[in-house]
Structure formats: structure tokens, C-alpha cells
Amino acid sequence: MKLLTLIALLGSVHCLNKQQIAGLKNLLKNLDGVYPTCQLVLFSDLVDYDTAERNCENFDIGTGGGTGNLATVNDEEKNVDLKLLLEMAYPYKGEDNRWDDDQWVWAGMRKTQNNDGSKKNREYNALDWEWADGSNPGEFSKWMKNQPDQRKDGDNLQNQMRINHHGQWDDTFKYKTHPYACDYQGKYILSATMRTWSGAKLACEKAGLMLAKVRSDQEVNEMIKAGDSFLGPRDESLKTWNAANWIWLGGSDEEEEGVWKWVDGTPMEYFDRMNWRPPNPDNAAYLKDSTQNYLAISRWGQFDDSYDSRQRTRPFACQCPGT
Fold first, then answer.
1. Which domains occur in the chain, in start order?
2. Largest CA distance in the chain
3. Nearest-CA neighbor of 79 among 167, 181, 180, 184?
């Protein structure tokens, strides 16, 4: 499966304002086919419903080894997020092309009861439908006018749900091919855009996020996995210090030498247990320098103290609110 990247944003609570939407687009512009918020990740591969469902079950970042699922779009905020991500992946082509495969995205709602295709059972009843996580749709819905209509094609019924650029829902056949969205339960949104540490910090803030914290071995593993999903597979042929091997994090001792803190001012209690790449953290002692004040993690989970200046640019990780 071609893992295009991304992670969805602001999962905890609030809708993005215009500035944050622009910031998010800027974070994601160099990712290859993956578009996230802190709640959802959209993958741009055009696949049928069953393939989308399997792919989301294998997308398990942040689940602690559990399985993922196709997107549960059960409120207005997630519906708006999905419209935003679809527009990033496949810009709106106008009403004349509204039925094109790339103008819709699979979500995880399917009809599980009263599937005889009769006229009586075509009327929408939330109790007949179920999200991929097993929950019932409840009162929230965004069906297009006269939908769902559960048309029939041979033995196939329109039992699956897709969403368009307007956030409208439609029932369709599982053999149709569309991009798809998975629920995202992780902490991080990664950007492939190369920036200095201070540039990365500012880019995260513009999207309503902050440069990421890694506070345990478990979070190290999640960061490695997020890197593989969002930045693409690690390249063993690259030299150790190649910029593609490293990701900026939100740790620094710029205020007081030797006193490391995260960008929100909290102490880095994990510091002494970090898997530092020898001889780091060295603060450039061998160069008789003292400005390696910024934290990075390798794609393999080792840490380094590094420069903000000297054109040291790298990909970077932002942290989702509330995580």
C-alpha cells in the first residue's frame, strides 16, 4: 500500500481558523499523497471500498498496537476537516466533473440492515447504518438531496458512503474507486518541508500546533512509525547525518545551557533516558562551539543536539493539541 502521508489536525477540540488552515496546508504541501488533521488522515490512492477498509485497519499509529478504521465522520468538525483534506489532495473541478472518482472520498459508514433493495428500505434510517468503529450514526448526517437511494447494479447495492468537496454524503457501490480517509489516533503531524529549528517552530505555531515532544520509548516508536508513514520509507543508503534522516523536535536549552525544556516550557524529564547518538549531546565541543541547542531525532530513534543556524534544515514534527 502506498502510504501517502498525513495526520489530521486539531483533533481535540476546535475548528481551524483561516490562518491555521493556511498553516496546515503549508505543513502538508511537500508530503506525497497523504493529508492529515489531528483527527483524520486522507490517502490519495484511488481504491475500492474493501481495499480502503483493509488499508485503514493496517494504519494503526497511536492505537497501541490495535487496528485502525475508515473515518468516523460523526460531527461537523470532522466533516469540515475532510472537505479540507479532499481539496488538498484533489482540487474541486466544478459541477461538470462532480461524479469523477477523485471528487469523492471514502468514509467508514455502511448500511448493515434492511438491505433488500426494496423501495420501502431506501429511506434513510440511522439505525440501518453503522460506522466502521461499530458506532451508530446518531442524529448527525449530511446526505445529498434524495440520498441515500440504495440503487442496485446486479447483485450490488449502494451500501457504502462517500463524501464530496461540499461535505455532502452519497451512497454508492463498493467497487467504485476513491481516495479514502482513516481515523487518526496519533500525536504527531510531520512535514517534509525542510526548515531550520526556529522555522519549524514557527510553522507548527501557524497551524495551531507546537513542535513535538517525545517523552517515552513508546513515543519514540510512534515517531518512527509516523515518519515511515508520512515521510516515506527510511533510506539505509543515506549517510548518517543526511538531513532526510532527521526530524526536528521541540526541545531546546537555548535559554540556559544544559537545562533542556520543551517549547511549552515543561522540563525534558526523559532527557537522561534518551538514546543519544554518541558522543551527543556534545554541544559541538569538538568544534569549540556552544550553539547546538536544538533537539532532533533520527528516523531510527536516536537523538542529537544540533544547530538552528548554518543552514541546518530538516523535516519536522508538530504535536496535536491535547496529546
1. 39-183 (3.10.100.10), 188-319 (3.10.100.10)
2. 80
3. 167
Taking alpha carbons only, the member of 184, 32, 47 closest to residue 106 is 47
Beta bridge partners of 36: 41
Pseudo-torsion of CA 252, 256, 261, 264, nearest 10°?
Answer: -90
pLDDT in tens, 42-88: 999 999 999 999 999 999 888 777 789 999 999 999 999 999 999 99
Cα→Cα distances 274→226, 241, 257, 271, Å: 18, 18, 18, 5
- Contact residues for 190 (Cβ-Cβ < 8 A; gap 6+): 5, 7, 31, 226, 227, 230, 231, 247, 315, 316, 317, 318
pTM, rounded to two decimals: 0.88
| pLDDT tens, position by position, 37-55 | 899 999 999 999 999 999 9
End-to-end CA distance of the chain: 28
